[in-house]
Specification:
Layout (H helix, E strand, L loop, with lengths): L2 H13 L40 H14 L2 E2 L2 H9 L7 E2 L15 E2 H14 L4 H15 L17 H13 L15 H6 L33 H11 L31 H16 L5 E3 L7 E3 H13 L3 H14 L1 H7 L1 H13 L12 H6 L7 E2 L23 H13 L10 H5 L4
Antiparallel strand pairs: 1-6, 2-3, 4-5
Helix pairs in contact: 1-15, 2-4, 2-13, 4-5, 4-6, 6-8, 8-9, 8-10, 9-10, 10-11, 10-13, 12-13
Length: 437
């Protein structure tokens, strides 16, 4: 879902001393190392061939989760690489260049890397070290819950929709009842999410106004501004869903397509908030079939990643029919973006295909499973019946896409530096859209 690119921005801003400082950091964690030089060999178990400083755990987690979703058993060393990234207290930082070195207070453990890793490890269900790592991650995430019930990117940071939703999905995947997970102030994660949902306005509905959308965070004056990426995250969070949403055959009732009235006024239930957010997303992609990323001083550009997130959110909300247009746009237009952006991008497209019952091995003519596999170590095995596809071919450990991860991470880092670094979070380029001056 959402962390991938903005996580890079947050990490970059933290390195140069801006954004917010965490109120609580891990008792043991290593600080991010400098970017690896072109001559430095990355770990053979890692997906992607570009600098993992800001997204290593995130992209690894998504890659492993996507492979599991389509019946591919990841290489053992890929799973081992992920578990080795964990700090002693159970949290994960974006990347630890030397896992043998103990974590210390300089390491910025974050909720999103931890949540993504937890979802992957829980799905893989490897037992042993993997199960212990998942249990420790659950304990850490619970320990850093904010008083309002939610989570920020860094422990102690103000709660935001994206981080809270990532953690909800991770804890639910690990069989934690998040509806009864209460903070010291007796607030649940859903209380935090509902506080970030824009109340219904007069005539609110798909495309009518911003009523029902989610904001990333309140602005300095406490006002909420609709954010499409945060809305996609909020829909999943309010439904208790993770990064992977199964096709509409699990008893989930289909919602009517097209416009829908915003329900619940200024006090919606989580289910109403999810439906309202989905209706907002339908309007957001109604024209072109995709979302756009607005950056200061630049023309709007199609936002492939957040469009994929929107497809998953609409499917989770029972609006698979409305997900058809953005899905078709992705099938036609996402190949170059995915090739440039790497493992996490392929994983996002696989999640979108899976959520809508589309074959990821024939996604606009592309085999996303094979393309993802080519960015990392050879899979241990694959299930030819999964997703109706064929066995993936073994890939040499060094058979990696030359450009994976580079565009999405470094482009957004540059934008973060130019755009004023006063953001307080991560999860996606659209996160920045509402926070630019």
């Amino acid at each position: 879902m959402f962390v991938r690119r903005s996580a890079a921005v947050l990490a970059a801003t933290a390195v140069i001393g801006t954004a917010f400082a965490p109120a609580a950091l891990a008792d043991e964690s290593p600080s991010p190392s400098p970017s690896p030089s072109p001559s430095r060999t990355l770990p053979s178990g890692l997906y992607g061939s570009t600098d993992p400083t800001y997204d290593g755990v995130w992209r690894q987690s998504l890659a492993l989760l996507a492979q599991h979703t389509v019946g591919v058993k990841p290489a053992a060393k890929a799973v081992d690489w992920l578990t080795a990234q964990q700090c002693a207290n159970g949290g994960f930082a974006a990347y630890r260049a030397d896992p043998a070195t103990k974590c210390d207070t300089r390491t910025q453990i974050d909720t999103n890397s931890t949540g993504a890793a937890l979802q992957a490890l829980t799905a893989l269900d490897t037992g042993g070290a993997g199960a212990e790592a998942a249990d420790a991650a659950v304990k850490w995430l619970k320990s850093v819950q904010n008083e309002d019930g939610g989570w920020g990117y860094l422990p102690g940071g103000a709660s935001d929709t994206n981080s809270t939703s990532v953690v909800i999905g991770a804890l639910e995947a690990a069989d934690t009842d998040t509806r009864d997970l209460r903070s010291k102030d007796d607030r649940t994660p859903y209380d935090a999410l509902l506080g970030l949902a824009l109340p219904c306005g007069k005539g609110a509905g798909a495309g009518a106004d911003d009523g029902g959308a989610f904001a990333f965070q309140p602005d300095k004056k406490g006002k909420l501004a609709a954010n499409a990426d945060a809305t996609a995250a909020g829909v999943l969070g309010a439904l208790g869903e993770g990064l992977v949403t199964d096709p509409e055959d699990d008893g989930r009732s289909a919602a009517p397509s097209g416009a829908a009235e915003c329900a619940g006024g200024d006090s919606p239930t989580p289910a109403e908030a999810a439906a309202n957010g989905a209706a907002y997303l339908v309007g957001a992609v109604a024209g072109t079939g995709h979302l756009e990323s607005a950056l200061a001083g630049a023309d709007d550009q199609p936002d492939h990643g957040n469009t994929a997130d929107t497809v998953v959110a609409l499917a989770a909300a029972g609006r698979t029919a409305d997900a058809g247009k953005p899905l078709a746009w992705l099938e036609k237009n996402s190949a170059s973006w995915a090739a440039a952006s790497g493992p996490a991008a392929y994983a996002q497209l696989i999640f979108a295909a899976h959520a809508t019952g589309t074959d990821p091995r024939d996604f606009g003519g592309a085999d996303l499973v094979k393309q993802l596999g080519a960015t990392g170590p050879a899979a241990a095995s694959s299930d030819p019946s999964a997703e109706g596809g064929q066995d993936t071919k073994d890939q040499d450990d060094n058979d990696r896409s030359e450009d994976d991860g580079g565009v999405s991470v470094w482009w957004i880092v540059g934008v973060g530096l130019v755009g004023g670094i006063g953001v307080g979070f991560l999860l996606s380029s659209r996160t920045k859209k509402q926070r630019q001056p």
